[in-house]
Amino acid sequence: MAKFPFPTTEFPVFLAPMEEVTDASFRRLCKAFGADVLISEFVSSEALIREVEKSRKKMQFSDSERPFGIQIFGHDEDSLRKAAEIAAEEQPDFIDINWGCPVKKVVAKGAGAAILKDIPKMIRLTESVVKAVSLPVTVKTRLGWEEANKPIVQVAEMLQDVGVQMLSIHGRTRSQMYSGTADWTLIGEVKNNPRITIPIVGNGDIDSGAKAAEYRDRYGVDGVMIGRAAIGNPFVFKEIKNYFTGIATPLPTYEERVNTCMEHLRGAVEVKGERTAVLEMRRHYAGYFKGIPNFKEKKVRLMLALTVAECEAILRG
Length: 317
Hints:
The protein is α/β, with parallel strands linked by helices. The chain is built from 15 helices and 9 strands. The chain folds into 2 domains: 13-244, Aldolase class I (TIM Barrel), CATH 3.20.20.70; 254-316, Orthogonal Bundle (Non-ribosomal Peptide Synthetase Peptidyl Carrier Protein, Chain A). α9 (209-219) packs across α10. The chain is globular, with a radius of gyration of 19 Å. The protein starts with 12 loop residues before the first strand and ends with a helix. 45% of the residues are buried.
């Protein structure tokens, strides 16, 4: 079994996998701004074994993105194992299993965070994937299904025992979705459990270098994973990495934001085509132009734009 290529940088910062967000164009930007580890959008195991072209494309990456992981999700042992084998053919650095997605359409099929209602199945399916591929296997999950049951400390031990080589933990239950505040105390308990020897990466509410450093020092995690705070804000990785070295990072100028946003959009067009890229870009504008005075009118127009030319004209107008 190959060993997980955990970055040698002192405290790595991961880009969390996010559906219709972490495509190749956005990942490349995040890497350029300092993200240490990148992971694909999550890929359905059922779609992979049915050879759905869209799912195949999600797995494509360039060597400049390494270390890079392909994340898969599913609920059936046979299809999840086969999907892992298909993903391994792309030669990523690791395979990540999504046991944390709280979205209804995923959970309704018994995938993502739904597995937290059946821990024995979670462990059985994970072990099946570990045995199926020679690549390192990692897991991303949550504290538990609901507030009354947060078994993450025991789950971490079991995942490690079946060969998982890194665990990233979102500090919420599925019932919380993304509401409230992430609870990092249990993430800290996992990391400080003497039985745990694999890297533990914390996820949830990290949006600045100050918070990343605070949680690193308080909970002892091996790295942090940035999710929603990175949407439309690849600059956050530069701010965090600079903070660790004592460098203050000025806010990007409006021109820098526009140039980065357009680079992102044009890159997405190459992968997904103009219409899909323009539509998916809409979720990024709030992040790119947060704090810019009088931007609301432009944002409204951007939400109606259907071409790259329209978007650029609005932003540069």
